[in-house]
Amino acid sequence: MNPHDEHAIRDNWELLKQELNIEEFVGKLVKAGVWSPHQSDFVLNSAPLDRDSKGQRFLETVVKSGSKCYQTFCNILRESKTNPRYETLIKALSIQHSVSPDSGVSYMGSPRQSTTLSSISTTSSMSLNVGACAENPSGDRNERMVSARAPWRADDLYHPDETDEDRPGTPAEAVHAAVQKASDATSGNLDMVTLEKELVKIAPTIADLFSKIHTQTTTVVATSEEELKKIREDNDRLRKTNRSLVEKLNSFQQKIIQLQLENKKLREFNDNEKTKQTQLDEKSSELDKLKEKLIEQKHLLEEKERELDMQLEKLQMVIIDNEEQKLKLASLEQLHEEGLREYEDQQYQIEELQKEKDQQKGQIEVLEEKQKMSEQILQRLEERLIMLEQRSNQKNKTRPRYYGPSRPWMNGMMEKSHHAQVKLQPQFPTDFSSSNIGGKGGKGWNV
């Protein structure tokens, strides 16, 4: 591919990726026979399938396919120039709307380097000579006038079979037509070969102009005022024509100087491009290697991504299990709190029962003490009864039996037994509280 074309693509790389309809251009390139189905499949179906990656593969394939592919690509853009997006790309790439094979302009609109400095210097010397003639239109210094044909390579470029009908009517029109034919309609650049041919064509017209000026200023003799007036008008008209011609040729000379500078820059650029091309080739191979590495890394990353997805699913399962465990723990905590409350209630009941038990134990001790006291009293009563029986027996033996009045404490009758059994009605206290036990006399009985 032409280095200028590749440089233009590289400069507008991101813009092309964003603006181009990749599927449309790939289909048209395959239809034009420039690309194979394999290239189309590589651009459209290789991973990744996002828009940016497709654009990257498309532009790389265009650069690798050469100038023919790029020319077809430019033709497709020109056919789609009604689309505002593609019109922006056409302006960015400096693509001409029409290219003639003999225009001397490259496909990107930049001037070719085939024009030599000799032709440029020849043309500039011609314009300077014409300017010198234009400054001396009068007959006083006719000997200084110089013909405009001096430095031209007429043998190679001028064709005598052209008729006068093909020439423009005035020298100014001829110069304007030459500049129009040699200039690019879109970029405004000049092609030196075409310009040289056109200047050779108009050289006779300019020479006729100067010959008319010479003959009118030297040989014409006025015979009347009307002829003098006519001659003056012709001279004025010729001067105006000459002035416009000089102005156009001066502007033309400035363009020639600009072209000389551009040619010099292009030569330097061409030398630099050769070294840059080798560097670009090396970088391209390095980029291809890097691209392969990136593809491998991409596959590894995709595998890792799948692993991460699996781990993420496991983590989600663990999170769900943790939430279930939290719910279970919450329910267990609730049950534990209920158990604690029941335990506290039971402890309270146990304490109450313990208090009741202590109270009952105290009552039992009091009752046991009362029972012991009552047993002691009964024992003393029994001992007293025995003593009384013994006394009564002794009295009966010594004195006659005398039945006196009944004792108030005896209520019953004696029975025959091994000892006297007395039926008593003891006045026992009915209240067994500790205050009443052991009351009067400390014995607890009222006899």
Automatic annotation (TrEMBL):
Q: One GO BP annotation here?
A: regulation of apoptotic process
Q: Where is the composition biased (Polar residues)?
A: 428-437
Q: Which Gene3D superfamilies match?
A: Death Domain, Fas
Keywords of the record, alphabetical order, are: Coiled coil
**Where is the CARD domain positioned along the sequence?**
1-80
Biased-composition ranges, Gly residues, are 438-447
Residue span of region Disordered: 101-121, 428-447
Which parts of the chain are coiled coil? 221-398
Q: What is this protein called?
A: CARD domain-containing protein
* Organism of origin: Dreissena polymorpha (Zebra mussel)
